[in-house]
């Protein structure tokens, strides 16, 4: 397996290709460097802030490993507690839930995929992406162990489980489009990610647009097969903040992201401990946790939202339009122009070897790849 930069977005990967953490991620002393910086101490609000918030509400998600490490280690509480600022945590079961929490003012920071953030923004949610928490390969098209489906084209007329408003759903739409199909050619069964796995393994659906760690669990524990993988159709991990919080407390946005950087670098230096945290939090086996982190999560990235994320989102906009995802009057292109607030991540980002040149497996020709069942 050879590392190289991201290939063209239509490139699919063989089933055994992966983003391998231990081979690709080497950070000499990131965690120690960050822990010694003044940013980790309590700081007073800047003149631009509207004072200090009484609380900071942050989501955590099994598809966002840094959020799990941050919550487990209590670093936000350690920093903000010096000013008697409470930290509240809410579990997001998917991008759709994180977007609901952001829209309803239930959280100040929410973890979504890029496509989900863009659609929410276009449809009126007052958010901006302030940090990139991972370059994942967290979704693929999955069939049961005994299925004879091997290509996207064979999904025509079939039932496919997917969680609408999330990256797996948009991954499905992009894969269908690439195969000359559309959503109208399949029956999308809209269920939450964990229920999609259950529906697939019970035989209630023919395929599933899966999400890790549920997808990795289905592979390892039920022999489910990935029939189509494409890293470029995974639209990055976005940490989004409510615009009202950004406007009122910009210093505290930076404070939260400083701790996010601490968590990211800690994972790079402590991969086994990070896998244990994921296993315990998501109540999955250590083998499933390792598969998600070792093979399908790249944290050696530029965390500042920018050109790489824009490039992954621009091709999704026509799908939003063709599949009637946008509300009347919504302008996805204008939303994309206003989506990023890079200044906060730029202020706290720490160097990582190879950042800006994501390491992925050597791509093959753009043909669907059939997985070998885990055994």
From TrEMBL:
Pfam family of the protein (one): NMT1
Residue ranges of every copy of the SsuA/THI5-like domain listed in the record: 83-274
A GO-annotated cellular component: periplasmic space
Coarse class of the protein's main subcellular location: periplasm
Gene3D superfamilies: Periplasmic binding protein-like II
InterPro entries to which the protein is assigned, alphabetical: ABC_SsuA_sub-bd, SsuA/THI5, TAT_signal
Top-level division of the source organism's lineage: Bacteria
Entries under SUPFAM superfamilies matching the protein: Periplasmic binding protein-like II
Subcellular location: Periplasm
Keywords: Signal, Transport
Molecular function, one GO term: ATPase-coupled transmembrane transporter activity
Annotated NCBIfam families: SsuA_fam
Family to which the UniProt record says this protein belongs: Belongs to the bacterial solute-binding protein SsuA/TauA family.
Function: Part of a binding-protein-dependent transport system for aliphatic sulfonates. Putative binding protein.
Protein name: Putative aliphatic sulfonates-binding protein
Species this protein is from: uncultured Thermomicrobiales bacterium
């Amino acid at each position: 397996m050879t590392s190289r930069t991201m290939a063209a977005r239509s490139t699919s990967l063989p089933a055994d290709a992966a983003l391998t953490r231990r081979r690709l991620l080497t950070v000499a002393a990131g965690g120690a460097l960050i822990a010694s910086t003044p940013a980790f101490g309590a700081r007073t609000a800047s003149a631009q802030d509207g004072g200090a918030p009484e609380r900071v509400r942050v989501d955590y998600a099994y598809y966002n490993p840094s959020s799990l490490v941050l919550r487990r280690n209590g670093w936000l509480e350690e920093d903000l507690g010096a000013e008697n600022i409470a930290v509240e945590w809410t579990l997001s079961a998917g991008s759709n839930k994180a977007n609901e929490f952001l829209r309803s003012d239930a959280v100040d920071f929410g973890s979504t995929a890029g496509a989900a953030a863009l659609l929410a923004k276009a449809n009126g949610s007052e958010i901006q992406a302030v940090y990139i928490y991972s370059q994942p390969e967290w979704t693929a098209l999955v069939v049961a162990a005994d299925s004879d489906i091997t290509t996207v084209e064979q999904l025509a007329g079939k039932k496919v489980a997917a969680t609408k408003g999330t990256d797996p759903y948009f991954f499905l739409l992009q894969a269908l489009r690439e195969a000359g199909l559309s959503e109208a050619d399949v029956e999308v069964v809209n269920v939450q990610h964990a229920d999609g796995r259950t529906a697939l393994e019970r035989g209630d659906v023919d395929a599933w647009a899966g999400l890790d760690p549920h997808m990795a669990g289905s592979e390892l524990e039920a022999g489910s097969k990935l029939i189509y993988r494409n890293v470029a159709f995974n639209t990055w991990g976005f940490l989004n903040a409510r615009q009202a919080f950004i406007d009122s407390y910009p210093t505290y946005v930076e404070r939260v992201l400083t701790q996010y950087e601490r968590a990211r670098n800690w994972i790079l230096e402590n991969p086994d401990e990070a896998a244990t945290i994921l296993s315990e939090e998501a109540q999955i086996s250590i083998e499933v946790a390792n598969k998600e982190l070792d093979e399908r999560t790249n944290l050696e990235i530029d965390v500042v939202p920018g050109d790489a994320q824009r490039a992954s989102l621009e091709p999704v906009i026509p799908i939003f339009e063709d599949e009637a995802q946008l509300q009347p009057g919504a302008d996805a292109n204008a939303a994309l122009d206003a989506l990023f607030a890079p200044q906060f991540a730029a202020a706290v980002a720490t160097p990582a070897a190879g950042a800006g040149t994501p390491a992925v497996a050597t791509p093959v020709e753009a043909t669907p790849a059939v997985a070998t069942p885990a055994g």
